[in-house]
Specification:
Two copies of one chain form a homodimer.
Chain A (H helix, E strand, L loop, with lengths): L5 E10 L5 E11 L5 E5 L13 E4 L5 E4 L1 E7 L14 H14 L4 H17 L2 E7 L4 H14 L2 E5 L1 E2 L13 H18 L6 E3 L2 E2 L7 H14 L3 E5 L3 H10 L6 H7 L7 E5 L5 H10 L2 E4 L1 H6 L7 H6 L3 E4 L11 H19 L7 H15 L17 E4 L2 E2 L14 E2 L5 H11 L5 E6 L2 E5 L6
Parallel strand pairs in A: 1-4, 6-7, 7-8, 8-10, 9-11, 12-13, 13-14, 14-15, 17-18
Antiparallel strand pairs in A: 1-2, 2-3, 5-16, 16-19, 19-20
Helix pairs in contact in A: 2-3, 3-4, 4-5, 11-12
């Protein structure tokens, strides 16, 4: 469908750097019919010459435009289990909760229901780009790609490969099956979105314990051959790390296992990275592989506390992942808060320099994520030529103090707050109700019921 | 206003013990005109003889009745700062964020606005009982008591005392001022609620660093003399603990400072208790003093991780506190999640026995809190003779998977979930939207807009 030229007027906020958020209080951003940013003006709310016929959308109340969130690690198929994990840890969690659920995606009706829901719900939380793990099922994985395209969410869609240490009823029968099924999913995306403009296929070996060296080497070959990105898990839990050591006695480390399979490249996303050694982090940096930090999941499953500030200071590229359903939430806003909180726990033992600030968490949620998925030239901030992947955030004033308008969301602006305070209130107390509209590549993909734009 | 006899029909859930939640799927609870529970029936949804003329309220969708939450530690006056704390820790946080805000409560219009808001908002989160720290101002503190009474929230209202280590513009000039002002606030509650039926005054020395031994001894005397409960902070942060050691060199410990002042009794609520020694915990147990665990605050301010399971196993009485605005949230549901998450971080170093379960967190939020405030015979669970302090929780089914009804709240029931799963989904993914109605002592004090009861 054709897009209307639009000028977005009001405050816009985005990350200027890892540590600094740029707040332009009276700005305007023009977005062309191609969904790309045509101009960014800091100090004018006037519609410029040549844009007089454009649609105008203004922020409301204490509102602002903010880049869409990037979820660098989420299991779309596990969404029905969000919040259900008991006191389990990774390896028993997989068998108890996860494999039985994922295996049900051989039923396409079930897949349609869950995937429509998770895409609609994450859009409502402002997630404009998501890196999805699907399941082993080719039709359901392709359906997820179709749903993302139809609903307008930028997505990386991965067919999960695993050929051992999973139940008989839910695993790849052979290396050939894993590679062939992965190819079918790549081919499907090439058909529906040949330029990978919105949807990108992603090669997805689950993780080293459930993949033989053979299947990883074959997928590494596919990765190198096709240039299609890949995603997997690494070093999430100590028992898992010990298992990898046992399964791959020849490899110097968990990271080396992937490297030796040809799966550690600049187009690789590694989720978790909680217990990496110095040598592993150096190898990841040398290969320019990317890290998806999943704090809610790491806390929920008692996996450990990732040293994010250490990784950042060593020059690694880090974004945030909700890791549903190891993580309970599909909201990257909530995940930003969790990232800050995990960093507090790290600081309790490692010292204050381990603390993430609100600004840093928001960077990870946007520009950091953009770099993780290799789209830093297209998304993550507001610059001319980038795609308009954005959310409108609305924070309400406390008017009649005794009347709570639950629809307006939980953030309370009493008056006198600085913009820094407002952003902090959004991060700590906000939720999906404060994300009142969401666009991907200029297309409106979510808005609050009743909102006039 | 007179209450109508009411029968609440449907599923009710409450804590049977610390580790067990009791789910009565088809139950009914009768509440008399006095707001007290007259009958509790597990296996019938029939309205019993003698109640045929009573109003009937039924749960909706995957809904259930649950005891109201008890917030055992919240600074009502700090509510406008919820989410605003930067990278500060306790002692600089007080000077940077807290004292300037609290001192503004010399203005009664400001106090009315903030206090109406925090009471309305906490009620909307299902908090039926709150232990409030107000400020040093008598008129504003009395106004908070009036507002709680008018809005129907059960509350402990404390006028803050402090006579040192706070700014000149915000401290008690003398011991006499502290005691006299405290008495005025006690007298006010005796006037508006002579039996302390809904509102209870609470003697509130801020904490040992900002109180001289003299003011604490005088307040201890007032506590013993009046029988009015008291509340304070203890052992939140290491720098604070070191400061107390320095300020009270004669005392064997932080806990002993309060004990020596006569402030450590069965009617004392101690917030935080993060860094207590074994001897201190033993003394607290011997005095039967109570603990308010404030995990969100302890993480936000990098105070430390309280050893809740240790305290529980040693027989201490523990409830949950939001500690707004050290804590970012005024929701005890969110605090229950934070308690579980902090316990995960403790488990990462201390082992799995440190983990709190969903059931344990809900116990702390209800029955634990009731014991902390000394009202375990009246609130915290559903038994005949107890007050109807309750919330109706509603969890929605996923119907049209692609349509998100944000008003219905974030919990998603896909079908097939056990009650255990539903409760876990509520705790991890729920928010105020899932609390559709709230009663205190039988009176409806909050309901979702448009809800027909």
């Amino acid at each position: 469908m054709a897009l209307e030229k639009t000028v977005y007027i009001g405050t816009y906020i985005h990350s200027e750097s890892l540590t600094k958020v740029d707040v332009a209080v009276d700005g305007s951003i023009g977005v062309g019919e191609d969904g790309k940013i045509a101009f960014v003006l800091r100090d004018t709310t006037e519609v410029p010459e040549g844009w007089r016929n454009a649609k105008v959308i203004r922020t409301q109340d204490h509102g602002f435009f903010f880049p869409g969130f990037i979820d660098t690690h989420i299991h779309a198929s596990q969404y029905p289990n969000a919040g259900v994990f008991g006191n389990s840890t990774l390896l028993d969690w997989l068998n108890t909760y996860t494999f039985p659920l994922e295996s049900s995606f051989n039923n396409l009706d079930n897949a349609a229901r869950v995937y429509n829901r998770v895409v609609a719900r994450t859009l409502s939380h402002g997630t404009t780009t998501a890196c999805y793990f699907a399941t082993t099922h080719v039709p359901a994985t392709n359906l997820l790609a179709d749903i993302c395209q139809a609903r307008g969410q930028r997505a990386f869609v991965g067919r999960v490969c695993m050929d051992r240490m999973s139940p008989d009823y839910y695993r790849d029968e052979s290396v050939e099956v894993a590679v062939d099924a992965s190819r079918q999913c790549i081919d499907h995306v090439m058909k529906i979105d040949p330029a990978f403009d919105l949807i990108t296929p992603v090669i997805t070996p689950r993780f080293a314990p459930s993949c033989t060296a053979e299947v990883m080497a074959a997928l590494g070959k596919l990765h190198q051959e096709t240039g299609v990105p890949c995603q997997t898990h690494i070093s999430e839990n100590k028992a898992e790390c010990a298992l990898v050591k046992e399964l791959f006695p020849q490899s110097a480390s968990y990271t080396h296992v992937y490297d030796e399979a040809g799966l550690l490249t600049a187009k690789t996303i590694l989720a978790h990275a909680v217990h990496l050694g110095v040598d592993e982090r150096a190898l990841i940096k040398a290969r320019d592989a990317k890290i998806s930090h999943c704090p809610a999941s790491n806390t929920a499953l008692t996996s450990g506390a990732a040293r994010v500030k250490t990784m950042l200071s060593e020059g690694l590229t880090v974004g945030l992942g909700t890791d549903v359903s190891g993580g309970y939430t599909c909201s990257i806003l909530a995940e930003a808060r969790e990232a800050i909180f995990v960093s507090r726990h790290v600081a309790m033992t490692d010292g204050d320099e381990a603390k993430l600030t609100v600004e840093e968490a928001l960077y990870l949620a946007t520009r950091g994520g953009a770099r993780v998925v290799g789209l830093e030239d297209r998304i993550g901030g507001f610059e001319v030529g980038k795609d308009w992947d954005a959310q409108m955030v609305t924070l309400s004033s406390v008017e009649d103090a005794g009347v709570i308008d639950q629809h307006a969301g939980p953030v309370e602006i009493f008056g006198g707050e600085s913009w820094e305070d407002k952003v902090a209130k959004w991060v700590y107390t906000g939720d999906d109700r404060n994300t009142t509209a969401v666009w991907v590549n200029g297309r409106l993909v979510h808005s609050r019921e009743g909102l006039k734009l």
